[in-house]
Amino acid sequence: MPKFLLFLGALMVIAGCGAHQTPKPQAGDAPLRPGAVEEYFCASTDAGERPMLRILPNGLRVLIKQDNRFPLVAIRLYVHAGSSYEDPAQAGISHLLEHMVFKGTTRRGPGESAEDIEAVGGQVNAATSYDYTVFHTEIPSDQWTTGLDVITDMAFNAAISPKELASERKVVLSELERGEDDPGSRLFKTTTGMAWKGTPYAWPVIGYRNTVESLSSKDIIRYIDRLYQPQSMLLVIAGDVDPAHALEEARKACDSLDNDQVVDPAEPFALPQLDGPLVQVVPGKWNKVYLAAGFPIPGIGSAELPGLEALAQILGGDETSRLYRTLKYERKLVDDVSVYAMTLQRGGLLYVRAVLDADKVDDFMVALSRELSGLANAQFTDEEINRAKLNLSDSLFLSKETLEGVASKLGYFQMFEGGYDKEQAYLFGLSTVDAGELRRLAGAYVKPSQMTLAVLAPEHSNIEADGLGAAVASTWPESKQSPRTVPQAGTASTEEIDLADGSKVILLPDATLPYTGLSIFWTGGDGLLASSQQGLAELASRALTRGSKGRAATEIEDFLSDRAASLSASAGRETFRVSAKYPSRFSDDMLGLMQDILVQPTFDQEEVEIARSDQVAAIRRSLDRPWGLASRSIFPFLFNNAPYSYVHDGFEELVSQFGPGDIQGFWSRQRSRPFVLAACGQFDKDRLLAFARGLEKALAPKEPPYRAPTADYTSNRQRKISLPDRNQAHVLALFPVPGKDSGDTAGLELLRAALAGQSGLLFRDLRDRYGLGYSVTAFLWQTTRGGFMAFYIGTTPDKVDQSVEGFRNTAAMLGEKPLDAEEVSRAKNILAGEYYMDHQSLLSRSREAAALTAQGLSRQTSQKLIEQAKTLTPEQLRTLAQKYLDWSNVRLLQVLP
User: Fold this and answer.
1) In which band, very low, low, confident or very high, does the pLDDT at 12 lie, cut at 50, 70 and 90?
2) Measured between alpha carbons, how far apart are the two ends of the chain, in Å?
């Protein structure tokens, strides 16, 4: 789907999320040829059978796409009912309804909708945006009709019990407060409130405390009666289904529904005339400045959308963008800066956001204003225009990698663009964008009189609205690559190949998409560090891809963007990895680049300073977020020994001292161990093997694989951390468990599955029954030789003690009596369903294979755990709960306002 939808997805308010869980030409480089992007992607996007579209007699549209790659089906039911359909007194009613559908229907009791889906290994959720609500599930294909039944039951038969509403209202208010604690959410709400004042886009999707508190069950029922009409709905079914059978089942589920009111189509809002710049500064207990500038733009359906998307991509879409290069890389004014074209059905916003230090705000505002003021007369090069087109097209094409992505893309184009085939119209519009069109769009929409500026500023920073507005006014007066043949997969089956010096290559062919996901894992990471070096492995991963002997950092960024490719490095507690994903036709280019970076990284002083600054900024941001502070604190609180006890990204005072020599020393130790390379997708087997052998020869591994020690746990029992000026408390109950190589891991995973999820024990008890918090879950963290099970809740400060008692009671119950057979069956199905859902992408599969093999585990470890879990009995789970979920051994970690 168009890239703006990725940003829009982050703005949607999701009911069930509380339950779960970043060139200099070389020999052989050809220039990016204008038109190559359009030829490739327009040819590619029609691959496969066309979807089936049918309109039922009641006007409900059914869109079916058969896709047999995975034994899964994705179902999405869209309704034209979001916050833009509300009046001010009902702000938040769409989102509150989305919560209430999980609290019972005329056929199912509270929580039973999620239970029915999760019992067969599926996942179900719902989300509310400005212009629509969507109910969605991903479910094993042999049970997909259960998913259809649950989704339609939730949408058409919600019970809206006053008693359940009183309980769920508390959960929504807790969610609202949680959003106030998040800088990104608060920043966006402030920006849209100024830009679209006087329209429903001005208020947050979740609403306000006073409106949510005033809504009654009768209000919600009237809202359903007004908007939940079949004529305003779209049902999308994508996956391993027979289209004719799917259509028949859709008719059974939906054909009897009648329209009893007419829903008028949403009309676009008139573009606001702001008389800006409008500036709002919100002081608070922040460590950083969070800043956003917004410019109203037209909504979905506008012929200008492809051009606005391209303009946003060129300005701030990635590390090759103009603002990133100028404001971060060259002038070092920001930690991060990005630009999005957020386009909704009735209007949109060109959204510039940045994170920076308070003492750089004045210089940043002058620099940003100068950059934006020159766009109407800017010289946009063919290279940057074609790069933007390639990356926008690539994001649309890659949505097909997963079934959820297929269903989401089809649903968007059908629901809002007037037909699933409008994808081609978008791509054609993108192909026609040129420098003149970009200048025209910038002149029309990016101007100071249409600018809103929202700033979250640290207290006592002396950042004032008048000063920022004056800075804008004084500075800004208004006045290719040629196509190549895609190599075919070199083999039809998985292969594991040993190299000469202990390294391995794993080949996982998949001809579905002309892409390659490639991962290289080493053992080591934090395990190679002394205590005084905490954060160094993370810094090395940030610096590694920022320059080689053959290319500077900016040249690498251009090289990747010109090929719609990604390259990243990441350090873990006992591993280090480098991953890449790219169109397979660029394999030679990408393997050459990776060879340069891994063998001859430069760790240039200036680039190290940038990476170090980014890491320090990330540390400060984590200290601004309650969950970030909690997650940093878990490991030194729980573990005695390295590497488990380390704070992975380190401490500011340590990281600030690391230089190129420190990073080079770490990389020399890391690269001296054998690696495991795994490739998934379309690739040339012989070329990959030649690359791997050449890499092993160049790196010359001499050290054995790193093997982490057995985890040693502290005697700490409780820690309370204060984070002032926040609304929510975050509580973790931590239980030490053995590592992945333990025979108990399958049972621990099964216990986690029984506890987590919307139908899980914790969610049903602490959230549904007692309304203690919005976000409630359990998770299991393991390395090879240590780990922990965690119960987590985000709640209000007055409910912390009650939440802890709820955790205690749940742990006691699990040890006192066996779970019933139905509960255990649900957990087993969840494990199997999660595995397929989490391993659809090429990169996820290559990472899993490389990581497990590098750590000395079987590539089939996950599948074996699922099979082992299937054999476990309720009594065996009770024994495991007694062994590990012992409250006398619990560690309590709390972050309190």
Assistant:
1) low
2) 40
